[in-house]
Write a structure and sequence with these properties.
It is globular and about 35 Å long. The longest helix has 22 residues. By secondary structure, it is mostly helical. α1 runs antiparallel to α2 and α1 packs across α3. Helices cover 73% and strands 0% of the residues.
Length: 64
């Protein structure tokens, strides 16, 4: 069973790797998305709020 924290780490990792790949093959502007993901992770460390966690809760992913 997936927990919300495990799903969040998986999604963040996929987003970072995908944006790095897209920056390499398509446009360097994809690095802005990589930065957005990092900034979101940074702010959630201070505020304990993350939009993706809210979204995952709405989808029914259980907290662990």
């Amino acid at each position: 069973m997936w927990t919300i924290n495990r799903a969040l780490r998986l999604i963040a990792g996929i987003f970072v790797l995908l944006s790095l790949l897209l920056a390499e093959v398509h446009s360097k502007n994809w690095f802005w998305f990589t930065g957005f993901v990092g900034l979101n992770l940074f702010q959630s460390g201070f505020t304990n709020w993350c939009g993706m966690m809210w979204f995952l809760k709405k989808l029914g992913v259980k907290e662990g």
